[in-house]
Amino acid sequence: MTSIARDLATWAAALGPTADDLDLADRSLLDTVAVAVAARNEPLVQTASFLSEAARWAVAAHVLDFDDLHMESTTHISAVCVPAVLAAGGDARAYLAAAGVMSRLGTALGWSHYTSGWHATTTAGAPAAAVGAGVALGLDADRLATAMALAVPAAGGVQRAFGTDCKPLQVGFAADAGVRAAYLAAAGASADVSALDQWLELVGGDPSAVDLTGPAIPGGLAIKVFPCCYALQRPISALADLATQVDAAQVSRIMLKTPKGTVTPLIHHRPDTGLQAKFSLEYAAATALLDSYQGFASFTDQAVRRPEARRLMDLVDVQLGDGGDRLLAGEFEAEVHTGDDVLRVRSRFPPGSPQRPPTRDELLRKVEDCLDGTTLGPETIGWSSAGQILRDHL
Predict the structure, then answer these.
(1) Distances 157 to 109, 120, 203, 378 between C-alpha atoms, Å
(2) What's phi and psi for 5, nearest 5 deg?
(3) What is 230-347's CATH superfamily?
(4) CA 153, 155, 160, 161 torsion: positive or negative?
């Protein structure tokens, strides 16, 4: 009797990556490790120091909300899959197997799963991490399917965690659960592999939507330019284009128009902390108009509490259009009023999206910003060295 777990496991065990797949894996490793190293002094990373390697590294990779995103599944693939694979001693192929499973499970879960309040990164992430760690350990297809089933109890997480420490911790728990499940499967633990099918239906997924065709990661991955929720990448980049033409002190009104679905994770309308600001459309408008570069400094508690930022947030009028499937649905439109002048901007795809992939120079600028203050360089981060780099820095 076939099952989703068996189908995915068979695909993962037989995966032969293309050159393009391997290039994407290398980019994802560089981006993820750099973002994790940038988080080395975050209080939560220190708090989580007693967790397993996979969990600790995943927390670090996600706590800044600067990690990549798979648009079709709305999942932060690399923050889960890179740590799980590295903790098990895996390589690019193991990562691609995990990422491929996560992208397909997340897509089968669908947008309705996300809009219902689930944190798709963690629901799809635990079984995917099991595959990545399992491939790294050399498990065959049957054992990989068992590992996925053993990870099902940990395949949870909700969006009410957004803006709190629990969000990156959930990601860490998913990575840890996957690695644990892979080692249990390798040791001979048994499970009913159809548990994955049952779980998928219970959380609102569509088993028929699991598509094993195409590249390892269908649709590719979006790289973040700003260290915040992906739903803010488009608004910030669009409004930042207007910033050179606007004196923020003269702004009297900010009107934002976007499809309703694109703001699903933006649950903090009056943020008081940097974490909350990463999920605030109102603050996105403020930092875009105030700051010349919306980097780490824009998402501190102090930056969010600036009087000028508070004033601009109060001026934001958000008008939501009907529907909107996924975070880049439709177009984002903005009007910025200053006295008698009105400046307008529209945007479809932000920089770093699969439709506007980052150039090598853009990626290296981000990586070098993340590695600032270390002796580490981008050229030293490879699949054979990344695990030790994370041990040394976290």
Answers:
(1) 14, 8, 11, 33
(2) -60, -45
(3) 2-methylcitrate dehydratase PrpD (3.30.1330.120)
(4) positive
Which segments of the chain belong to CATH 3.30.1330.120?
230-347
**Taking the CA of residue 134 as centre, how many other CA atoms within 13 Å lie in the half-sphere pointing to its CB?**
38
Query: Over the stretch 148-182, which tens digit does the pLDDT of each residue have?
Result: 999 999 999 999 999 999 999 999 999 999 999 99
What is the fold, at CATH topology level, of the domain defined by 4-225+355-393? Answer: 2-methylcitrate dehydratase PrpD (1.10.4100)
Comparing CA positions, the residue from 108, 101, 81, 84 lying closest to residue 199 is: 108
Residue whose entry in the numeric block shows the structure tokens 């499973």: 101
At 323 the pLDDT is 74
Cα–Cα distance for residue pair 32/28, rounded to 1 Å: 6
Q: Please give the C-alpha separations between residue 104 and each of 120, 218, 224, in angstroms, as whole numbers.
A: 12, 8, 21
248 exposure class (CB count in 10 Å sphere: 0-12, 13-18, 19+): middle
CB within 8 A of 75, min separation 6: which ones? 69, 102, 103, 106, 120, 121, 124, 125
Q: Write out pLDDT tens, residues 109-125.
A: 999 999 999 999 999 99
d(CA 177, CA 72) in angstroms, rounded, equals 24
β-bridge pairing 332-338 and 316-321:
unpaired
* CA 60 – CA 48 distance, rounded (Å): 9
Q: What is the dihedral of CA 160, 330, 121, 169, to 10 degrees?
A: -40
Q: What is the mean pLDDT of residues 361-382?
A: 93
Q: How far apart are CA 322 and CA 371, in angstroms?
A: 42
Over residues 267-293, the mean pLDDT reads: 96
* pLDDT for residue 340: 85
- DSSP run (H or E) holding 243: helix 233-243
Q: 195: Cβ–Cβ under 8 A, 6 or more apart, which residues? A: 5, 149, 152
C-beta separation of 255 from 334 below 8 A: yes
Whether residue 275 contacts residue 336, with contact meaning beta carbons closer than 8 Å, is answered with no
Q: Hey, how many other C-beta atoms are within 10 angstroms of the C-beta on 115?
A: 17
pLDDT by residue (tens digit) across 332-353? Answer: 999 999 988 999 999 999 999 9
**Tokens 């041990």 -> residue:** 391
User: CATH 1.10.4100.10 occupies which residues in the chain?
Assistant: 4-225+355-393
